[in-house]
Write a structure and sequence with these properties.
This protein is of the alpha/beta class. The protein has 29 helices and 19 strands. The strands form four sheets. An eight-stranded mixed beta sheet has the order 12-11-10-13-14-15-16-17, sandwiched between helices. A hairpin with a 5-residue loop joins strand 18 and strand 19. Helix 4 packs across helix 5. The longest helix is centred in the C-terminal third of the chain and has 21 residues.
């Protein structure tokens, strides 16, 4: 069956795209659309054309599997000529075209719709050009048509920030011409198409509209800041500058020249390392819920209707909030009333913050708070489908909690721990049925951070893993299933991160230069600023687990412990490597750590082999010396079978540690550098 079909109704050729689940513009769809539009334009029985999508969606955009082939350098179809089809037969054909947009018109889907002479959308339709998230730019005329339909400033926001808009805003902006009920969308689009054909409604060619474009001087001013920001990241993310350039050329030299530049720049963007990294991450993130031997044996997840949370601190209240946002009832348990009140207050604050930001109504927040049952007794966990322990990292305490939970909870209740480092078999050691326990490691703040590590042991039943994967889908998290080891995936892979940074300081590097180099690499902050944020007391406590379990490959610098001895814990104490004002704004404090650094260097006596200290390390060399050990640890994790796919580590590194997505993740980046290069250094 063809993915594109045509039905003629009262002089209107209704062309339907049918490529589930989102009617992606795969090559057969583009070829079918080309034939259908040409046939309709040539058919004397057709007065007008409507393009719509089957299955309640217009189109989610260009087929990303085709894009993946291009970024990997594999043979792929050249679809560059499709722009000419849109210009000649959709926008400029003798018979008008109207897009009937139901629910979704993103990327190439919106570009097809914008080439039509008018657009009708359903009330919940989402419209946007998110191509820059994949390291490429719009390639079907989006850089030229969107500014002319919504204005230059709004188009820059939509493209450079990959920000989609709803139908109501699209109507106000002029991106759509009418909003219609889903049951009437094709009928309304057909009526509008016939009205344009009869001349009673003006036919618009969006490529040539000028009424929403600013004058040349204003255009220059509007483009100044985006151009400046794009140049700042051009060396690692060229697609941003390439997009701004295509827009600028179209405004200065006309849309035809703009289309040519768009096509040239699209090819440049597709071949960039950033596109390769971002497309890799796109597919890796969507494959983390596929676990061989677990998700392919026919088991179905049981929905979680009630989740218990032990501990109402920052992590526990965040986990509770994440569950509430999915409509799951929460039983929150603490040991004292004052702690319980504080935990409920934190949940309320999380929801209030969302109300304040316009992400939720006050009525919705009240409704979600009604799903919380605060308690001081474990007895209230009896009917829970899952209980998540989120108390301090104290092994005897956790063991006591799980012995009690095992006694009280129903037999099929999943018992899980949010520990970030402790071997979960140790936590389960005193249970009668230790196989019941599973790791459910959230990242703080739990209701915001997307990553969800699911830790299994050799004895974990497949059904428990499938159910926990089901929970991740309910609460809209990205799961990564990992084996049981110290640090699991993220903390294990990144334990050399700060250690390598302290090595560099001890051989003479400035800690602030290290932080700057790591931020230039693409991390949200450097290792010393991160240590201040987390708290160096926490860092030392967690780090001890790695010192105990991997004594042959750790570096024990005296630097961080000396900060603790001088009560420089980081943000929480007002000073660490940086000093902080009352709004927690960081300022480097070289005078405050100068003596501590000098003492650490004197005590460490690096390099150990007596070789001369390297002088004047470049930012790239600093980044390599910090991240090559991380890549090495990632390879160990893969070889030990802790994680089954390299893409899982890449996803975890990006979502859990802020590793730059445009580099594709730790393993992908390591592959791009080359194993031989890394081994040689």
């Amino acid at each position: 069956m063809s993915p594109v079909t045509t039905k003629i109704d009262d002089g209107v050729a209704v062309i339907e795209l049918n490529n589930p689940p989102v009617n992606a513009l795969a090559v057969p769809v583009l070829e079918g659309l080309e034939r259908a539009v040409k046939d309709a334009q040539a058919n004397s029985n057709v007065r007008a054309i409507v393009i719509h999508g089957a299955g309640g969606k217009f189109s989610g955009g260009f087929d990303i599997t085709q894009l993946r082939k291009s970024t990997q350098g594999k043979p792929s179809n050249d679809v560059g000529d499709f722009n000419a089809i849109l210009c000649r037969y959709v926008e400029g054909g003798s018979k008008p075209c109207v897009a009937a947009i139901e629910n979704l018109a993103l990327g190439g889907g919106l570009e097809v719709a914008m080439s039509c002479n008018a657009r009708v959308a359903t009330p919940r339709a989402q419209l946007g050009l998110p191509e820059l998230q994949l390291g490429v730019i719009p390639g079907f005329g989006g850089t030229q048509r969107l500014p002319r339909l919504v204005g230059l400033e709004k188009s820059l926001e939509m493209m450079l920030k990959s920000k989609s808009i709803k139908a109501e805003e699209a109507l106000k902006l002029g991106l759509v011409d009418k909003i219609a009920d889903p049951s009437r969308i094709v009928a309304e689009a057909s009526a509008l198409a016939k009205a344009i054909a009869s001349g009673s409604v003006k036919r618009e060619l969006s490529m040539y509209r000028k009424d929403k474009l600013p004058d040349p001087k204003s255009t220059e001013m509007i483009l100044k800041e985006p151009s400046k920001k794009a140049k700042r990241v051009q060396s690692v993310m060229p697609h941003v500058a390439l997009c701004v350039d295509a827009i600028s050329v179209g405004l200065a030299q006309g849309p035809e020249e703009g289309l040519k530049r768009e096509a040239e720049n699209f090819k440049k963007a597709v071949s960039s390392p950033a596109a390769k990294g971002l497309v890799h991450f796109f597919f890796a993130q969507r494959a983390t819920n596929v676990v061989p031997g677990i998700t392919d044996v026919g088991l179905k997840p049981r929905p979680m209707k009630s989740v218990g949370v032990v501990g109402g601190g920052l992590m526990g209240s965040g986990i509770a909030t994440a569950c509430l946002l999915a409509g799951i009832q929460v039983v929150l348990k603490e040991i004292k009333q004052e702690f319980l009140d504080a935990g409920v207050g934190r949940i309320q604050s999380n929801l209030t913050s969302m109300v304040r930001k316009g992400r939720m109504t006050e009525d919705k927040a009240r409704q979600l708070m009604s799903l919380v049952k605060p308690t001081l007794t474990d007895q209230d966990f009896r009917q829970c489908d899952m209980v998540i322990e989120a108390v301090i990292e104290n092994l005897p305490l956790k063991q006591k909690i799980f012995c009690e939970l095992e006694r009280i909870c129903k037999p099929d209740c999943i018992l899980s721990t949010n520990t970030s480092t402790i071997d979960i078999t140790k936590i389960a050691a005193k249970m009668k049925n230790p196989e019941r326990i599973v790791g459910a490691h959230f990242f703080s703040p739990a209701h915001v951070m997307q990553l969800f590590e699911i830790i299994r042991t050799d004895a974990t039943p497949a059904q428990i893993l499938v159910d926990t994967l089901g929970l991740s889908k309910q609460i809209k998290k990205t799961p990564v299933v990992v084996g049981n080891c110290t640090g699991f995936a993220v903390n294990r892979v990144f334990f050399p991160y700060t250690m390598s940074a302290t090595v560099l300081v001890d051989i003479g590097c400035d800690p602030y230069a290290i932080d700057r180099a790591i931020m230039m690499f693409g991390m949200p902050m450097g290792p010393f600023r991160l240590g201040d944020l987390v708290g160096h007391d926490v860092g030392v406590h967690v780090g001890q687990n790695f010192i105990d379990d991997f004594p042959d490959r750790v570096y024990r610098s005296p630097l961080i412990p000396s900060l603790l001895a001088n009560k420089r814990l980081g943000e929480k104490s007002g000073a660490g490597f940086y000093k902080y004002d009352n709004k927690r704004r960081a300022t480097p404090d070289p005078e405050g750590v100068e003596m501590l650094i000098a003492a650490s260097r004197a005590q460490s006596k690096l390099p150990l082999d007596g070789s001369p200290v390297p002088a004047g390390l470049s930012p790239q060399e600093i980044a390599e010396m910090i991240f090559f050990p991380v890549v090495n640890e990632a390879c160990r994790v893969l070889s030990e079978g802790i994680v089954v796919k390299a893409g899982d580590i890449d996803t975890a590194a990006i979502l859990g540690m802020g590793f730059p997505a445009f580099r594709g993740g730790v393993v992908h980046w390591g592959d791009s550098v080359g194993p031989a290069v890394i081994a040689a250094k």
